[in-house]
Amino acid sequence: MAGKSSATPETYSPSLTGQRKKRPPILTDSDWVRPDGRSLHQCRPAFLRTGAVNSASGSAYAEFGNTKVIVSVFGPRESKKAMMYSDTGRLNCNVSYTAFATRFEDRAPETKDLSSMLHKALEGAIILKSFPKTTVDVFALVLESGGSDLPVITTCASLALADAGIMLYDMVASVSVSSLGKNILIDPVSEEESYQDGSLMITCMPSRNEVTQMTVTGDWSTPKINEAMQLCVDACSKLGKIMRLCLKEAATAPQD
Q1: CATH classification of the domain holding 74
Q2: β-pair partners for 95
Q3: Which helix (H) or strand (E) is 13 found in, with range?
Q4: Which portions of the sequence form the region Disordered (predicted)?
Q5: Number of separate domains in the chain
Q6: Which stretch of 111-115, 198-202, 225-229 has the lowest confidence by average pLDDT?
Q7: How is 106-149 classified by DSSP, letter by letter?
Q8: What is the mean pLDDT of residues 80-97?
């Protein structure tokens, strides 16, 4: 894979159910049909918008299929805690789900783990020295959980940071894939995550061609994981272009 990587493989399971469901008996690996009709290597259409929360320093809304996320950024603001430890800025991340975000039979993932993962994904892209002794707070709220929640949260949070004027080395885009038998499904929905044999998520800075985070679960062969990584990197590159276009359109839009 091209580009340098500072990523450390970690373990994270994005399945909302906590248990893998039995695969539908009428389907085999060769005739798997995705619930939303996409091809195996086709991402869901991405809708992105900045300025979703007027009271925040910056904000963004992201909608990938049925996965809907809103992120608010506050700061930089003075932080006694940051002043005690370092002359660089401090980043705080919090992820939460609305009460109606998941289906009745599902449960939301551990938000503490998601908050930690989001922090790791964003911290390397932020120029912390640009806001010394202050804190930037990122609040992500999942309005509807439709699968691939963490990649959507990360992408939306990066857009919100840019909207807040926080100095970044590059935008951060994130994409995940699921392994299902011999197939690799990109940008899986909740149902596909519940059937998956393994998952892989990559977070990267597309313009710098640098992977900042990679998480892997399940068993992967070397050829299969290489294919999955390349799929994610290519998708992140395309997503990065959409994110930059969103910022450009927001900057040129007439002010009320």
Answers
A1: 3.30.230.70
A2: 140
A3: none
A4: 1-34
A5: 1
A6: 111-115
A7: -----HHHHHHHHHHHHHTTB-GGGSTTEEEEEEEEEEE--S-H
A8: 75
